[in-house]
Amino acid sequence: MLFRLAFKNIVGNGWRSLINMLILTIVLTGIVWMQSMYHSWLSLAERQIREWEVLQGHYQQNSYDQYDFFSWEKSLAPIPQELSKAISEDRAVPILLSPVTIYPQGRSIYALAKGIPPDQKISKLPSQYISHREDGILPAMIGKVMARNSRLGEGDTFTMRIRNIHGTFDAVDIRIAHIMDCPVPALDLGTIWLSLDELQMLKDADNYASLILIDDPDLGTKSYPEWKFRTPRDLLYDLEQVKKTESGQQVIMFIIFLFLAGIAIFDTQVLSVFKRRKEIGTLIALGMTKSQIIYMFTLEGVMYALFAVLLSGILGFPLFYYFATVGFKMPEGFEGYNFAGLSEPIKFVYPPLIVIYCVLIVLGFTALFSWIPVSRIARLKATDALRGKMK
Fold it and tell me: Are residues 90 and 15 in the same domain?
């Protein structure tokens, strides 16, 4: 009976009920969209980092510190024999690092040269472009951001100065063979990719490497004297910190959205209680308890939210479908934020748990904001209600 009365009251409110439902629909659609965007972006970033850089983990030379530029010069050691076998079987790939200075168009730019086998297949880096030396000029590969910052284009040549392991400087001519579209800024910013053999020769460090990326988890179970193993979880630590930061921002946005929805429901319920004073008194006189009346008014607010859930599925479907198929393209310049997942359209996914979580939160807050203004009915006398008085 209470459900039927609540439904009739919602229908009887006419446009006010429809406006409330539309407000709740916008709020719920916005919350689901926002949660899905963050989830999809961070999932895309993690996938890109894993495919391009992390794989199944890294062996790093003991001196290597990714945050210490000065450690890169001495971060190299002979490749262990067992890992050399894994490299020949395409289960691992070595990378050699060397700080360099390049001189494009008469300018001086500090950069990091990275050597990688051109025939490697386990990383998505398009290393095949740096396989052939022409006219004594080494082929190199850079990313789009590096190309823009250094004002280099495909086919441009410049001189690179490098120091070998004995402290002797050497210079070599470089030609840009390919500009790659790399979604992982750490592999693009300030980085020049060369053939591993060529960089080892320039460094006079045959069979040396700084990092060894593995594609077989079993390889990460062994230890070597000059090497330390970093698991994917260790390498994705920065991403996990970003997730925690974004969670705090989402809470703030959640509160703003829910506050807007709460105001709409709160105002409606206050007005409804004020206009239906005599009806409340009549119901009390007919034997309905005050708790039942409070429950009925609260149920009305919850039903607004339930109808909003249905409307969100209907009205929000084109929006959800568009972002799931076409995706959300970040504005130009966002790749400069040095974070993965921003260079290509983010195609949204809508995990059921996130959708259910958002719906339950909206229902809960709607019930709360519906109950607060009608809770004063518990202190109302039936005679005062029948006379239209509210204290």
Answer: no
Q: Where are the alpha helices (DSSP H) in 13-117?
A: 15-49, 81-88
Output the six-digit token pair for 290: 């005050």
Whether residues 83 and 12 fall in one domain: no
**Per-residue pLDDT reduced to its tens digit, 329-381:** 876 666 556 677 677 788 888 888 888 888 888 888 777 777 776 666 655 55
| Domain residue limits at 201 | 58-230
For residue 130, what is the DSSP state? G
**Given its phi and psi angles, is residue 323 left (phi above 0), alpha (psi -120 to 50 degrees) or beta?**
alpha
The CB density around residue 320, as the number of other CB atoms within 10 Å, is 18
Q: How far from 48 is each of 45, 209, 234, CA to CA, in Å?
A: 5, 24, 16
Q: Token pair for residue 294?
A: 């409070």
Q: Determine the distance from the C-alpha atom of residue 5 to the mean position of all C-alpha atoms in its chain, rounded to a whole number.
A: 46
Residues 348 and 271 in one domain: yes
Instruction: Read off φ and ψ for residue 352, nearest 5 degrees.
Output: -55, -40
Please tell me whether residues 301 and 372 are part of one structural domain: yes
Same domain, 65 and 208: yes
- Number of structural domains found in the chain: 2
The verdict on 90 and 126 lying in the same domain is yes
Q: Specify the 3-state DSSP secondary structure of 331.
A: coil
Which tens digits make up the pLDDT trace of 116-146? Answer: 999 898 998 999 999 877 777 899 999 988 9
User: Are 260 and 114 members of one domain?
Assistant: no
Burial of 28 (0-12, 13-18, 19+ CB in 10 A): buried
Instruction: Judge whether 391 lies within some domain.
Output: no
Measured distance CA(229)–CA(227) in Å, rounded: 7
Element (H, E) at 143: strand 138-143
Closest by CA position to 270, among listed 356, 180, 365, 377: 377
Contacts of 47 (CB under 8 A, 6+ apart): none
Q: How far apart are CA 89 and CA 121, in angstroms?
A: 11
